[in-house]
Amino acid sequence: MGQLPLDLGFRPALGRADFLIAPCNQAAVAWLDRWPNWPATALALSGPAGSGKTHLGEVWRARSGAVAIDHAALTPASVPTLLGAAKAAFVDDAERADEEALLHLHNFLGERQGHLLVASRQPPARWRIALADLRSRLIAAPMVAVEGPDDSLIGALLVKLFADRQLAVAEEVIAYLAIQLDRSFEAARETVAALDRASLAHNRAITVPLARTVLGDLRSRDPG
């Protein structure tokens, strides 16, 4: 009988040493390394889901002493409390934040000669921003994109994703997946999670045959 896979969650490693630098993200890393010598109050970081924006934000937060602010908790009235005495803030999924609150946060940090890092899937120029003052500030801010993983990154990314789940996987499995997977962070994350579940459910080691089966199942569910 197979074992029931329990989603107990896992904590990804988000330190600077755990971030995988490759051509697709070098520009973003360089911009964060330039802090505090940014030419504007804000810096906009964009990229697809799972591309490492949150990881980069956490690395910058640890270095700058910034506070991480949940976009859902950000309201005009909550800005002073959420920011406290900090002179830097990181807002992930910033395109989903309340516009007036995000403007207040930007202005607070500008008055303190501080900095705001906003991360989103699309650059601010593609957001639907109704508030003209917020739009002008974000459009004027430097913007850097994190691209999808290239061949030099996909294998290292798979190793990290398995390691985050404390899974030891043979090199032949990594090599097989690196060839088979679409070049996207989301595909890598989904596949590693599915292999973790399948390994636990069937009490099997993660091998190339299991990877082949799991990939087949994932592709059969994909309407595209």
Give a short account of the largest sheet. 5 strands, parallel
Termini separation:
33 Å
CATH architecture of the largest domain: 3-Layer(aba) Sandwich
Mean pLDDT: 87
Strand content: 5-15%
Shape: elongated
User: Which structural class should the secondary elements be placed in?
Assistant: alpha/beta
Provide an overview of this structure.
α6 (151-164) packs across α7 (171-180) and α6 runs parallel beside α8. The protein has 224 residues and is α/β, with parallel strands linked by helices. It has a 5-stranded parallel β-sheet with strand order 2-3-4-1-5, sandwiched between helices. α4 (99-111) links the parallel β3 (88-91) and β4 (115-120). The chain has 9 helices and 5 strands. The chain has helices spanning 26-34, 53-64, 79-83, 99-111, 132-140, 151-164, 171-180, 185-202, 208-221, and strands at residues 42-46, 67-68, 88-91, 115-120, 143-145. The longest helix is centred in the last third of the chain and has 18 residues, at 185-202. It folds into 2 domains: 25-145, P-loop containing nucleotide triphosphate hydrolases (Rossmann fold, 3-Layer(aba) Sandwich); 151-221, Helicase, Ruva Protein, domain 3, CATH 1.10.8.
Tell me briefly what this model is.
The chain is α/β, with parallel strands linked by helices and 224 residues long. It has helices at 26-34, 53-64, 79-83, 99-111, 132-140, 151-164, 171-180, 185-202, 208-221; strands at 42-46, 67-68, 88-91, 115-120, 143-145.
